[in-house]
Here is the input.
Amino acid sequence: MIRRLATSRWVKLGFLALALGFCVYGLFAERAAVAAALPRVAWYSVAGALAAAFVGLGCTMLAWRALLADLGSPLPVRPASRIFFVAQLGKYLPGAVWAPAAQVELARRDRVPPARSATAVVVFMGVALATGLLVAAAALPLASGEAARHYRWALALTVPVLIGLYPPVTGFVLDRLLRLVGRPPLERRIGMAGMARAIGWWLLGWVFYGVQAWLLVADVSGKGLAVLPLATGAYALAWSVGFILIPFPGGVGPRELALIAALAPVMPTGPAIVVAVISRLVMTIGDVAWAGLASAFGRARRPEGAQEQDQASPARDSARLA
Here is the structure.
C-alpha cells in the first residue's frame, strides 16, 4: 500500500495542491504585510536576481557535464546544455523521476550509455545536496543561530553526504546498487579530479544563488551587505530541504517555508513571503529560459549515423520520453 501511494499520480498531485494551498494561504493571511513589502522590491533588484540565477544554473550544468566527462562521455557545452536544461523541466512535474529519466533518454541520443548518464545524475544530485548543506552549515551560524538550530536535522546530513562523495565510497555504493538491480558494475568510476570539478562548479553556483537571494532580501529589508551571509545560507538550506522532501515537485512549498523561517531574524513573515515567491519565480524563469535557449542553439554535430537514426524514428523517441 505504501508503494502504491508513493507512486500514485493523485497522491503526488495532492502534495502539490497542498503545497500551493499553503503558499496561497500565507499570501492571503499576510496580505497587508505583503502589499506593504511589494513596493519595496525594485525592478533592478529582480533583474539582478534573475541574471544571478541564470549564471548559477549554468554552473550547475557544468558540474553535471564534468561528472559525465569523468565517466568517459565528454560532451561539448551546447549539446550538454540541451540535454541538461530540457530534462530539468521535468522536476516541476509531480514525482521525482521525470527529470532524471528524461536526462538519461536525451543523453542516449548523443551516444551516452544509459548506465553512465544515470550514474552522472545520481552523483550530481549527491553533490548538489552536499554542497548546499555545506554552504548552509557554514553561513547560517554566522548570521542566524536560531535558523541553524531549527534545521539542525538537515544540517546533520552534511557529514554523511560529504563522506558519500569520496570517490572510492561513491564507486562502491554505485556498484552495489547496480548489482542489486541485476546490472553489471560501472566500467569506469568517478575520479577525484572529476568530483573536484563538479564540487567546484556547484560551489560557484551557490555563490550566484546566494547573490540572487541577497539582492531580494537586501532590497526588502534595507540592510545591504549585512544580510549576505544570511541570505546565502538561508537559500542554500531552503533549497536542500526542498530537495530532501521528494514528493513536492521542484521543492515547491517546503523550500519557500524553509526560506521564510530562515529569514525571520531580518524580516517579518509578510516581507519574507514576498522574497520567497519572487525567488521562486526568478528561478523558474531561469529554468525555462535556459531550456528554450539550449533547445534552440544546443544542436551540435551529432555522431555519425545518429542524425539519420533520429530522423527515422521520431515516434519512438517521443514514446520513450513519454
Summary: The radius of gyration is 20 Å. Residues 114-143 form the longest helix (30 residues).
